[in-house]
Request: fold
Amino acid sequence: MTSTPSSNLHSLAQALVCLGLCTPLLAQAETNSEPEDLPALSAASEQASVVGVSSGGYMATQLAVAWPERFSGLGVLAAGPWSCAQGSLSLALNQCMMTRRGVPSLDELEARRQRYIELEQVGSAEALSQLRAYLWHGEEDEVVEPTLGDLLAEQWQQWLASPDQLRVARSENAGHGWPIRLPSEAAPGPQEWGDCRQGGGSFLLSCDDDIAGEMLDWLYPERAASDAGEPSNEPEGEQGGELVAFDQSEFAVKGLADTGYVFIPEGCDAGECPVTLALHGCQMNAEAIGDTFIRYTGLNAWAAAHQQIVLYPQAESSMANPQGCWDWWGFAESTWQLSPQHDTRSGTQISALLAMLDRLQAAPEQAD
Reply:
């Protein structure tokens, strides 16, 4: 799997959530042009969701807690409790991946959230209580200990208005990553697919489980499949829609790559389709594994069948963030801040992600 992380910065390159082997970058040649602006699609302002794996799971929770009124659902795979790192790399490594310094205190984290509520830096308890949440963790996860996933579930049990809004899923023999059902033409390979316990090069785990479909079915219980039919296991982005590269530079903040991707099902360019933000884990961006996460998680297949836009923002690798993680410990905030605001409405990456959602939900004439 991956080596045991140490508490120094050098270990970040080996330890920070979802390590993988590099494969070619998703070619811009597929679009035969430079990426254009993210389109304004008049997407539905209701029923947006955010899902993520590992560092993307931590960021998904941060986004949902900061702006719960903008979302109806949250999906988290292989991550721990909200604000676990509290702006500290040391805590991120030693208490939010491994628990060598003990497990994080949920009481302490809740006190942090209450302070944020008083300062209007996160959403209200009432708005948060209305979400639906789907949480998954592999019992054989050696990167983010399953105990941390249990603590995340405990947080949401406290926050949600009813236990009927929460589904907690565990896979007994699964490791760290995103379980998938392999497409029919694909064979498992060490550079691309992992087996169910080991992440391979992409940390997409060939467990023969459609976790994406199960998760989105839970987050959208009222949605019926459109005329596109039921999801298949064929290559995604090639069925019932278009995968488009877009220029992320207008949303530029520390840690974001130049190019992002959006899957637009047939008919969704006419407006009123909801949006799912899908956040990759560390070393799962296009820079590291090409289009593997963007095409093969199962999200696009469900989206094509249910008229759902899927936004794939991209983080980038840097000296401060060598594995291309989302900012769940504060690296993207000002270096002089003693208490980074990465997990609040003021967080730079949270603000950029919300601006992307705003763009998709804007009417075309409002894009300028």
Q: What stands out?
A: The first helix runs from residue 12 to 15. The chain has one domain: 48-361. Confidence is low (pLDDT under 50) at residues 1-32, 227-231.
